[in-house]
Amino acid sequence: MNMQYTTETSELLSEAKKSVLFTAELPSVVMERGEGMFLWDTKGKRYLDFIGGWAVTCLGHSPTILQDALHQQASTLVNCSPSFFNKPMIEFASLLTQVSCYDRVFFTSTGAEANEGAIKLARKHGSINLGGAYEIITVINGFHGRTLAMMSATGKKHWEKLFAPKVSGFRHVPLNDIPSALAAVNPNTCAIMLELVQGEGGVHAADPEYVYQLRKACDAHGLMLIFDEIQTGIGRTGKLFAYEHYGIEADVMTLGKGLGGGFPLSAMLTKEPFNLFEPGDQGGTYSG
Ligand SMILES: Cc1ncc(COP(=O)(O)O)c(C=O)c1O
Q1: Whether 197 contacts 223, CB under 8 Å
Q2: Catalytic positions, please?
Q3: Does domain 82-274 have CATH number 3.40.1190.20?
Q4: I need a surface site. Which of 110, 177, 247, 265 has the fewest CB within 10 A?
């Protein structure tokens, strides 16, 4: 073992303990480099990476195509602000509409942020088209991110008391329980949101009949159906999007993780009838 690297690593780790906010107990290694399916730490030790950046590095670590795209864009234009269109934004939105059943794309940075956009759009739909309905039905142990609203959406027992009071307006039902889902629909409901395969919740797939019944209920009551494909999208289930396995289309789909291949990029895609935001409703410094 090279002493210089050992010393450097222990210095970095002791600095991390002082200056990095504690959120989780992490192993005593510092990652420095990635290539393909391998990571290297600051001591030069190589790891076969089964984590894949929490399911984001779908092309492996630092693939040439990503390096080139980032390099080319960084040396052309980094941020023109969301006050203007930019070329890659238009090209990528157009590509996503061509390969999916959706008509419009709103770009964000994280999955939680894309889902927040979907929830806001659902409530906008409720206020415009459903007499002020605001409630969203979500699935117990679903995972939609860690903003306060998304932690309220999950219905995860473990999070029930965390950061109270939670954002209200979410009704949680068990996965694949059709009667419970249908019984939860009430005059305040504006949307149903779910993952087609729960990822964080333990790899539980939604039954095709369940998804079909949710689609039917949404059509009957004018509700927005939202598929969170942040984990299942971009080829993770063998098709580009998991909804293709079901042959059922939601009104809104969110993407993240594999979308940027490790670069923070997410998106909310919607069909034209739900292109409902008005100026001032939605935006963000890094949107698009
Ligand atoms: C299905 C699903 N939705 C949303 C998220 C949140 O994404 P992010 O961590 O980028 O906010 C995740 C992350 O694991 C996820 O698996």
Answers
A1: no
A2: 143, 228, 257
A3: no
A4: 247
Q: What are phi and psi of 174, to 5 degrees?
A: -70, 145
Which residues belong to CATH 3.40.640.10 in the chain?
82-274
CA nearest to 262, candidates 49, 4, 103, 93: 49
| Mean pLDDT on 40-68 | 96
In the structure encoding, which two tokens stand for residue 178, read together?
């059709």
Atom of ligand 1 nearest to the CA of 256: 10
Listed residue (60, 102, 123) closest to 255, CA to CA? 102
Report if pTM > 0.70: yes
Q: Cα(236)–Cα(219) distance, rounded to whole angstroms?
A: 28
Q: Which amino acid is at 247?
A: G
Closest C-alpha to ligand 1, atom 3: 144
Position 260 scores a pLDDT of 96
Residues forming beta bridges with residue 225, ordered by sequence position: 192
